[in-house]
Specification:
CATH topology of the largest domain: Maltoporin, Chain A
CATH architecture of the largest domain: Beta Barrel
Number of strands: 54
Keywords: Cell outer membrane, Ion transport, Iron, Iron transport, Membrane, Signal, TonB box, Transmembrane, Transmembrane beta strand, Transport
Domain Secretin/TonB short N-terminal: 57-108
Distance between the termini: 39 Å
Subcellular location: Cell outer membrane
Family: Belongs to the TonB-dependent receptor family.
Number of domains: 3
GO cellular component, one term: cell outer membrane
Number of helices: 10
Radius of gyration: 34 Å
CATH class of the largest domain: Mainly Beta
Length: 1102
């Protein structure tokens, strides 16, 4: 068996080596341009044409530059471009400048000025001219889509893909040239030739992606948060969502356990659906991407098997973070309504890196590091454990018996094993290699990249999450710049052979218990050795997946302002998972049956997204943009799960079909889904001062019946840039920018499974040898969309010329027509029926983002960013005529809360837990005349949703050295350590945290830890305690989530072929500050805590 193979194909290490070799060969073949010339008395213009043909560089000059040029005589063979130009222009009145892929010629001395004619009496003597210009960035790269306006008029043009524009203007007119992400520049029309725009250093001009276009913070009417590639690269993570924790206002990210590849929950502005299925819409380069967890199947073996935690992970595990250029998170109605039903729970737009014009570049990034176990309880020592055990017998007035192996001498009283070290190794190694080769030649830009990544498990079993892949982008424009085409693709193969179990609870054995492993590595089935808990180390788990994403974009710009665009996307996420229980998994003294499962899954999505946009002047200072189009999304989810048992040999357990037909069972599902939507967008901008944006969408989904498939959604957003008013500057000079914006709109929700409007059935036990079906759900053809009314009011401010930036937002989201599965009486023959309930959920809250430039000098800078999100979630109403779909729902309370017994503390006299029942304090255990009722007596309520969360980021740089520090924080309620324990202190072979040393010991003791006891009464009270308010504590914490230190080595140390070299070190989850004891406050003790990671790397650009 090839343990390092991905998808059964080429080993990933060889793939990485081959990829690197190919990239190096391509780089070598694309070395510096050379020129060969042999001319005598040739016109300079002709020689320049030859240089253009050989180099592929654009030669740009004004007509008067060559007015008195001399003939050229020169002979040169394979000389660099710079040297060839020096020779050609040696005795010419012309100088040159190379910018990117362009040669710019200018006169060494200007021509004598011609006296200006007198135009005062004859304005017609200053006629309108057809002017041609070129707009580039500071590196010489063409800027497509730049706006060129004749100031004070409605005359305007936009640059094509080559950065060229044509405009009618008088020589004395002032042209205003602007582009998203760059500083606006004004030039006189008579001087137009070559215009360079400098990147804007203001956050206001930061490029943000939204539906069918881009905008900036300055001009946006919606709520868009952006994370760039530079920030993502600082985090050594497999899944990019891990790098977003606390960074995006309103977006709460929680990883269920610390193991690589585990599920990640994402909630944007609170839970808004009673089904709990509301997931954000993920779009990668225009292609809808699978959200939520993957469709894995895990058969249950027995009740003693540790919990499975790697149930599919998250689909973004299969998207290489190094490929990502930016992530834009859309939250309010103005930003999300254009996505209709799909955007009801938020939208996450992921843009991957693209090829850009410029000289070829090869970038190689390699890093290595380790992952170590995160926060875990400090367990009692052997002496402390034995003390508690003996005290339990003393409290119960009992003596150890034959089954108390830890006390009766069967187990040595001096044997002390650290079960954490036994189940979890010291560390897991991590390795990462990324390589990209990009550049541009003429009108074609390209990028090709590859990656290889390994994240080893820290548990005892050898296993790792391995991935390798390729990605590319090719984009091109026509000679006239009217046609643009882009093709992108990526392929990632992964192999995850880590065990899908978490041994956090298996480490609680008595310190003197026998080793669950024999010297030869097999399971120790000796009584008390807890072999059944560690048997899962003998399981076989192998998950291979393949992810293919491709996007083709076509744009045609037949006339100025009109763009016809089509995007075609395809994604296929497929895989094969083996889970097997060989003979080594079972106690050989029992009659066991070996079992194996093969799960095949495939999620295929394609989309067609054509649209047309027209921009034109409307009013003396206004500009209107109109977009219309439709979207078709076709998705098919396929799953086949095959179970076999009773294998004759463990060698064939990988294939369940290698057993008898009577021992084989296959479940097959194929679920098609389709969405069809029509949309329109109107955006009007008056003088970059008043902006209004309207969205409308007519959305259809096959999740609903034929008569209710389509819904109408839309929004309106508006912004007023007050600081552009003349009266504002003199009134508040300290404020350099001020914008008020707001939005309101209706979006849809379809957080249900396919076919939910139909009768559904499941397999049942065979009847008289025939296959039987059991009804699950009744049909409801009138099922229709959830509706969410989103409202937001926000302000964006900058002070002291951008040194301080403040963003404030208040939102109120009201969700109606809730899709719920209503429980039915057993007499109906079905379990549930899906309906639209009139229940109403409201999420409201505040979001704040503060950006400051604390210090900025020539060599040193210090910038800070602080974000905080406060959300309140309530179930505002629920129809009295409908049965609550959860016993934890309370009108006026959060839907993320839980109803509990009212905890009254530990009785100082008896040392047992007590609770309130009808206002009376008592034990109320199962043996009481009136024990606690699981429904009626749960009168207390605890809200488990975050009260607030956010982050603090500090970035410092000094010359070539930079460092960033990211702190995240959260305040919420969660299960405390005492409330997460099944048994009380004193139970056989059950060790606990040192917190239990604070237990009740004698009458009069005041404590929250019950007495040590091994009686059943104490076990029952512990069970009641777990369901009481005493089991929950406030999990307020601040975590040093990431530290990154980077040093750019001086360029003088390297030859000219090396553009840059940097070394860096990163750390993840390094420090936690919290009064929440024993458990990790991020995942609240649910399995393994988030891992601490330490990495170092090297980044080279050639």
């Amino acid at each position: 068996m090839q343990k390092n193979a991905i998808g059964g194909g080429m080993p990933v290490r060889k793939l990485a080596m081959i990829l690197t070799a190919v990239l190096l060969l391509v780089c070598a073949s694309s070395s510096a341009q050379t020129i060969t010339l042999s001319v005598k008395d040739a016109p300079l213009k002709q020689v320049l044409v030859t240089i253009k043909q050989q180099s592929g560089y654009l030669v740009f000059y004004n007509q008067d530059v060559l007015t008195d040029a001399k003939p050229v005589s020169v002979t040169a063979r394979n000389v660099p471009l710079n040297d060839a130009l020096d020779l050609v222009l040696k005795n010419q009145p012309v100088s040159f400048l190379i910018r990117g892929k362009m040669i710019i010629l200018s006169r060494k001395t200007p021509l004598p000025a011609t006296p200006a004619p007198d135009l005062g009496a004859n304005p017609a003597a200053n006629p309108t001219q057809h002017l041609i210009g070129l707009v580039r960035d500071a590196a010489g790269v063409p800027l497509a889509g730049a706006s060129v306006m004749v100031k004070g008029t409605q005359k305007g043009a936009a640059t094509n893909a080559k950065g060229e524009f044509r405009i009618e203007a008088n020589p004395d007119d002032i042209l205003s040239i602007s582009h998203i992400g760059y500083e606006t520049r004004e030039v006189r029309a008579g001087n137009v030739l070559f215009i360079v725009l400098q990147p804007s250093s203001s956050r206001l001009d930061e490029v943000q992606v939204f539906a069918y276009g881009t905008t900036t913070r300055r001009l946006s009417t919606g709520n868009i948060s952006t994370i760039k590639a530079e920030e993502i690269a600082r985090n050594p993570v497999v899944n990019v969502l891990e790098a977003l924790k606390g960074r995006i206002p309103g977006m709460f990210v929680q990883q269920q356990t610390g193991q690589p590849g585990t599920p990640i929950d994402v909630t944007i502005r609170g839970k808004s659906t009673l089904t709990g299925n509301g997931q954000p819409l993920y779009i990668v380069d225009g292609v809808p991407y699978p959200s939520g967890q993957l469709p894995f199947s895990y058969p249950s073996v027995n009740s003693t098997t540790p919990n499975f935690v790697l149930r599919g992970g998250n689909a973004l595990d299969y998207l290489n973070p190094a490929m990502i250029e930016s992530i834009d998170v859309l939250t309010d109605a103005d930003a999300t309504a254009i996505y209709g039903s799909r955007g009801g729970y938020g939208v996450i737009l992921i843009t991957t890196k693209k090829g850009k014009a410029g000289k070829p570049q090869l970038n190689i990034n390699a890093q290595t590091g380790v992952s170590v176990r995160g926060r875990s309880p400090r367990l009692m020592t052997l002496d402390q454990y034995l003390m508690i055990r003996r005290e339990a017998f003393k409290n119960d007035e009992a003596t150890p018996g034959p089954t108390d192996l830890d006390l009766n001498g069967t187990w040595p009283l001096n044997r002390n094993t650290d079960w954490k070290k036994l189940s979890a190794g010291a560390f897991g190694q991590t390795s990462l290699l990324n390589a990209t080769y990009s550049g541009g030649a003429g009108r074609i830009n390209y990028l090709i990249g590859g990656n290889y990544n390994v994240q080893q498990s820290i548990q005892r079993s050898t296993g790792a999450f391995k991935s390798g892949g390729l990605n590319f982008n090719l984009n091109s424009t026509s000679p006239g710049g009217k046609v643009y085409f882009s093709l992108s693709g990526s392929y990632t193969a992964t192999l995850n052979d880590m065990l899908s179990v978490d041994y956090t609870n298996a480490t609680l054995m008595a310190p003197n218990a026998p080793n669950p492993f024999l010297p030869d590595g097999n399971i120790n089935w000796e009584p008390g050795a807890n072999g059944e808990s560690f048997a899962a180390f003998k399981m076989i788990n192998k998950n291979q997946s393949n992810n293919l994403t491709s996007t083709a974009e076509f744009k045609y710009m037949p006339i100025t302002g009109l763009t016809i665009r089509t995007v075609i996307g395809f994604n296929m996420l497929s895989g094969r998972q083996n889970i097997a229980y060989p003979s080594a998994y079972y106690d050989p003294a029992t009659n066991f049956i070996t079992k194996g499962n093969l799960n095949l899954y495939n999620v295929r999505t394609w989309n067609l997204d054509p649209n047309i946009n027209y921009q034109f002047g409307l009013g003396s200072k206004g500009r209107l943009s109109a977009t219309a189009g439709f979207t078709l999304v076709d998705k098919v989810s396929y799953n086949q799960s095959t179970d076999g048992n009773g294998f004759l040999s463990d060698d064939v357990i990988y294939n369940p079909t290698f057993t008898g037909a009577d021992n084989l069972q296959t479940v097959y599902t194929q679920v098609p889904a389709r969405n069809l939507s029509y949309f329109g967008i109107l955006n009007y901008n008056w003088d970059n001062k008043y902006i209004i944006n309207l969205n409308g969408r007519y959305d259809g989904s096959t999740k609903f019946g034929p008569d209710y498939r389509f819904g109408k959604f839309g929004s309106i957003g508006a912004a007023w840039i007050m600081s552009s008013e003349k009266w504002f500057n003199g009134l508040l000079p300290v404020i350099s920018f001020a914008k008020i914006r707001g939005s309101i709109g209706i979006v849809g929700g379809d957080a249900i499974n396919e076919y939910s409007y139909l009768n559904t059935y499941s397999n049942a036990s065979a009847y008289q040898g025939n296959v039987a079906l059991s009804p699950n759900r009744l049909a409801n053809p009138a099922l229709h969309w959830e509706r969410m009314l989103k409202r937001e009011l926000a302000a964006n401010l900058e002070f002291l010329n951008g040194r301080i930036g403040l963003d404030l937002a208040y939102y109120n989201n009201r969700s109606e027509n809730q899709l719920v599965g209503l429980p039915l009486p057993s007499t109906t023959g079905s379990e549930t029926v899906n309906i639209n309930s009139s229940a109403v959920i409201v999420n409201s809250g505040y979001e704040l983002s503060l950006n400051t430039t604390n210090i900025k000098s020539r060599n040193f800078s210090w910038r800070s960013n602080f974000t905080i999100s406060i959300n309140r979630n309530i179930l505002q109403s629920y129809p009295a005529s409908q049965v609550l779909t959860s016993n934890n729902y309370v009108v006026g309370k959060s839907i993320q809360g839980i109803k509990l017994y009212d905890y009254a503390g530990v009785d100082p006299e008896t040392g047992y837990y007590t609770f309130y029942k009808d206002g009376v304090k008592g034990q109320w255990d199962l043996f009481s005349p009136t024990p606690l009722d699981q429904i009626k007596d749960k009168t207390a309520f605890v809200d488990l949703s975050p009260k607030y969360f956010g982050s603090l980021v500090n970035t410092l740089s000094y010359k070539g050295l930079s460092a960033s520090f990211v702190f995240t924080f959260t305040n919420r309620m969660g299960h405390n350590y005492l409330g997460s324990q099944t048994y009380p202190a004193g139970i056989f072979n059950y060790n606990m945290s040192e917190t239990y040393l604070q237990r009740w010991q004698k009458p009069g003791d005041i404590t929250d830890v019950q007495r040590a006891s091994q009686r059943f009464t104490a076990v029952l009270l512990q069970s009641n305690f777990v369901s009481s308010t005493g089991a929950y504590s406030r999990a307020l914490y601040a975590r040093l989530a990431n530290v990154n230190i980077n040093y750019n080595l001086p360029a003088s140390l390297f030859k000219k072929y090396v553009s840059s070299v940097s070394i860096y070190a990163s750390g993840q989850n390094l420090l936690t500050i919290s009064q929440y004891k024993d458990l990790d406050p991020e995942n609240l003790g649910v399995g393994m805590a988030p891992l601490s990671k330490f990495t170092a790397g090297l980044n080279i650009t050639l």
